UniProtKB/TrEMBL annotation:
Keywords: Dipeptidase, Hydrolase, Manganese, Metal-binding, Metalloprotease, Protease. Transmembrane segments: none annotated. Mn(2+) 1 binds at residues 256, 337, 382, 421. Its cofactor is Mn(2+). This is Xaa-Pro dipeptidase. Binds 2 manganese ions per subunit. Its EC number is 3.4.13.9. Splits dipeptides with a prolyl residue in the C-terminal position.
């Protein structure tokens, strides 16, 4: 933990207040959160990588502690039931330590079943958050019920980050930027996708299971695959372009950063990167209180269509390109999403803290956030332009072939695509771009 003790204390006070309201909404007395348990692979004796329950790490900077529990009762100190097993097969978690410890009553247990001694006696009065397999063995009555009114309230308000959370996101971003710098150096040195990935992990100080999502490390035409994660072991003879979408974690919080680089002699493609980058920074400046994120997405389509028109890739006006779906063939995903404890943070479509859904704009099925921005929101802004054969073929089939200058498409096709992504904080005034801030400091 790197933030001040007071910021963390204020963070917990905020969570306590939210929890009291959520429990009242659901008619419960206690919030009980399971940290989660490992999942064993089917037909094998190995576990999948453990992933902590986000509802648990919202309170505690503990991400590698399966079998533990958190109990929150309004008006009382929160209780942590901390599993520290007797085990000579695996590394056992150290005794609880750190700034956070003084804020909790802590009971250390040696077996998962011992948790029942420290949990509320009446499970019916508890909102128990977690996955089904967190149920405590023979205590079948004590199992997660995940009541919707409680989840609706807690998830909705998770969009409003506390100062402590912003500090954690800033630390994650610094780690991610350091790794992005190392990845670019590896690309310039002629490394393979796998080699670049290893350079990234080394610089981040995190392996693939610790990173918040699987790295996208794409050379040349692989950049046209939106979620490319294959990682070729052999580098191309002379890579033209490099798209990397990779994050890092800190105390349970994630950053999400994308950059696109061109080989030194890729002049026209570099100019296209520069144009997307300039447009992306203008989009980041739109992250302001009261802005409908859906409109920001639609504005991004118009801006990117203008980039395509200026580059001679499309023959129609930006307005016509958006209206006829031409822009979606080159920019097929959403402008971004909320980020925090999860890369794609929850409740992106929530109409209120009582549930409901804010619809996506017609024709834009992949947008992950439809709420109006408010101070405390942290969102990604990630416009992209890609040369994807399947989507371009669909465009021809739809009778829109005349809207495209196909010779220009062929010229850019070997470079795959471009995406630029920053994590941006919405405030009462100007937005704070955590990503650009970290790159400037690196």
């Amino acid at each position: 933990m790197t933030s001040s003790t007071s910021a963390y204390a204020d963070h917990l006070a905020t969570l306590q207040a939210r929890t009291a309201t959520a429990l009242e909404r659901g008619g419960f007395d206690h919030l009980v959160v399971a940290s989660g348990t490992p999942h064993t692979q089917l037909f094998d004796d190995r576990d999948y990588p453990y992933a902590v329950n986000p509802q648990f790490k919202h309170w505690l900077p503990l991400t590698r502690h399966p079998g533990s529990w958190l109990v929150v009762t309004p008006g009382a100190r929160p209780k942590l039931v901390y599993l520290q097993p007797r085990d000579y097969w695996h590394v056992v978690p150290e005794a609880p330590a750190g700034e956070w410890v003084s804020h909790f009553d802590i009971a250390v247990i040696r077996t998962p079943e011992e948790a029942m001694q420290h949990l509320p006696k009446n499970a019916q009065r508890c909102a128990i958050l977690g996955e089904a397999q967190s149920a405590l063995g023979k205590y079948a009555a004590f199992k997660p019920n995940n009541p919707q009114p409680v989840l609706d309230y807690l998830d909705y308000h998770r969009a409003y980050k506390t100062p402590y959370e912003i500090a954690m996101l800033r630390q994650a971003t610094r780690r991610g930027v350091r790794a992005h710098r190392a990845a670019e150096r590896a690309f310039r040195a002629g490394a393979s996708e796998f080699g670049i990935h290893l350079a990234y992990c080394q610089a981040a100080g995190q392996d693939a299971t610790e990173l918040p999502y699987s790295n996208i490390v794409a050379l040349d035409t692989h950049g046209a695959v939106l979620h490319y994660t294959e990682l070729d072991r052999i580098p191309p003879k002379a890579a033209r372009s490099f798209l990397i979408d990779a994050g890092a974690s800190h105390a349970g919080y994630a950053c999400d950063i994308t950059r696109t680089h061109a080989h030194a002699d890729a002049g026209e493609f570099q100019a296209l990167i520069d144009a997307v980058d300039a447009a992306q920074q203008r989009m980041c400046d739109q992250v302001r209180a009261g802005v409908d994120y859906r409109q920001l997405h639609l504005d991004a389509h118009l801006a990117l269509a203008g980039v395509l028109r200026d580059a001679g890739v499309i023959t129609v006006s930006p307005e016509e390109a958006v209206a006829t779906g031409v822009s979606s063939a080159f920019f097929p995903h959403g402008i971004g999403h909320g980020i925090g404890l999860q890369v794609h943070d929850v409740a992106g479509f929530a109409a209120s803290d009582r549930g409901g859904t804010i619809a996506k704009p017609d024709g834009h099925p992949y947008l992950r956030l439809t709420r109006t921005l408010e101070p405390g929101f942290v969102v990604t802004i990630e416009p992209g332009l890609y040369f994807i054969d399947m989507l371009l073929e669909d465009l021809r089939a739809a009778g829109r072939g005349a809207s495209v200058e196909w010779d220009r498409v062929e010229a850019f096709r070997p470079y795959g695509g471009i995406r630029i992504e920053d994590d941006v904080v919405c405030t009462d005034g100007d937005p704070v771009n955590l990503t650009r801030e970290a790159f400037a400091a690196e």
